[in-house]
Amino acid sequence: MNKALFLDRDGTLIYDRNYLSTPDEVELIPGVSEGLSIALQMKCRLFLFTNQSGVGRNYFSMDDVNRIHERMEQLIGLRIPLFDDVCIAVETPDDPQVYRKPSPKFILEMIGKHHLDPTQCYMVGDTQSDILSAVNAGITPIAVMTGKGDDPHIFPEVARHNVRVFPDLRAFTSQL
Ligand SMILES: [Mg+2]
């Protein structure tokens, strides 16, 4: 069965700007296009999985998020739409937690909806919540070091769950 990659957005595909709200501020992390191109050549399924509490806080709207994703896909320059499905968790940390990472709910729903094999699924991200959403869903977590590097909780989780760490997305997909 084809592999499936669940991809965090901020700090994994594009630079992490706090509460990114306009397409003008979208900047790809180097190697992302090439890394995703490799994944597509390998017939990987691609899913975006991003926490956007700025929507829940009314800092920006879902229309803003969609415009940012359109810009990101343009910059990546591969197929459009790029993703088989897009998972956007809009809750704030103070809301009842349903979809927000580290919840596994989006991943589990995508596994069911798209008939994915959990043993062939990876969640790639730069923070503790990415790793834990993968662990909670029973899929393989992958850590990349392209985020802001300010999540002090990621390394204990990396050690606890034997998470493989890569310098960036391209380094991960190159060895799939
Ligand atoms: Mg991130």
SSE pattern: EHEHHEHEHEHEH
Number of helices: 7
Structural class: alpha/beta
CATH class of the domain at 1-114: Alpha Beta
Ligands and ions found? magnesium ion
Neighbour order of strands in the largest sheet: 3-2-1-4-5-6
Rg over CA atoms? 15 Å
Number of E-state strands: 6
Layout: helices, strands, pairs:
Elements: E1 4-7, H1 32-41, E2 45-51, H2 53-56, H3 62-76, E3 85-89, H4 105-113, E4 121-125, H5 128-137, E5 140-144, H6 154-160, E6 164-166, H7 169-173
Helix pairs in contact: 5-6
Q: What does it look like?
A:
It is a single chain. With 176 residues, the protein is of the alpha/beta class. The protein has a domain at 1-114: HAD superfamily/HAD-like (Rossmann fold), CATH 3.40.50.1000. It contains 7 helices and 6 strands. It has helices at residues 32-41, 53-56, 62-76, 105-113, 128-137, 154-160, 169-173; strands spanning 4-7, 45-51, 85-89, 121-125, 140-144, 164-166. It has a 6-stranded parallel β-sheet with strand order 3-2-1-4-5-6. Helix 5 (128-137) runs parallel beside helix 6 (154-160). The longest helix has 15 residues, at 62-76. The chain is globular and about 40 Å long. Magnesium ion (MG) binds at residues 8, 10-12, 16, 125-127, 147.
What are the salient characteristics of this protein?
176 residues, alpha/beta, Rossmann fold, 6-stranded parallel beta sheet, 34% helix
What does this entry show, briefly?
With 176 residues, the protein is α/β, with parallel strands linked by helices.
